[in-house]
Amino acid sequence: DTNSQRAHRVLQDFREAGKPYELLKYAIEHGEPVVQFHAVSALRDAAMREFDHGLTQSEKLSLVEWLLSKSPTVSGLVRRQMSGSMALILKRVWGTLDAPRKEGLLRHVADAGDTELMQAIVVEFNPYTTSAMGVMSWEYHYACKLDLEASFLPQILSWTLECIRGSGPGRGASSLRLLSALLLWDHNTSYIKGTVVELSVRPPENWR
Question: What is the distance between the alpha carbons of residues 23 and 184, in angstroms, rounded to a whole number?
Fold first, then answer.
């Protein structure tokens, strides 16, 4: 067995353990990329499993803030996995946050210039492209979608356009992927519970 295979088996065991976060954080901070990848996945699964029964509000916010701080320190597939996991956990905690805290978290992403994480957030909050339709109720998905759309999405679009105009080498592609995710945002408000009747990418009048 390789070290990576043994590490993977250990991390698999910790997927079902209660509050394995410190070990998984250590693996993310010090492990090889393959170990980091599986540790991020295990951390995400543990957080989603224990969100309502096991994690305090302080622990939830601490986990979100830790992921925000670590996102720029990894690269490649690990970074993509961390961005997706961070977006999913952020959406899960979104309904417990007040408006200033939500704005502060999104501002942190913008100030860091993290277009990949912002793209993951936009994708996750759009019911048409979310990865977690079976994890949270349809009503919760829709409430998160409406809140981000009304309170933050126009500012995210403006920031994205600024990023595109000022992109340096290697940044243009990620900014354009974020813009693509924004242009695919579902503005339709005609829903049957749990089902998008018709995708509408036409933004409301106050966006123009």
Answer: 38
CA distance readout (Å), 19 to 22, 48, 123, 182:
8, 11, 27, 35
Residue found under tokens 């106050």? 206
Query: For 157-187, what is each residue's pLDDT tens digit?
Result: 999 998 888 865 556 888 999 999 998 888 7
Compute the mean pLDDT over every residue in the chain, rounded to the nearest whole number.
83
Q: Which two tokens stand for residue 144?
A: 């998160």
| Per-residue pLDDT tens digits for 61-74 | 999 999 998 887 88
In the block, tokens 């502060």 appear at: 104
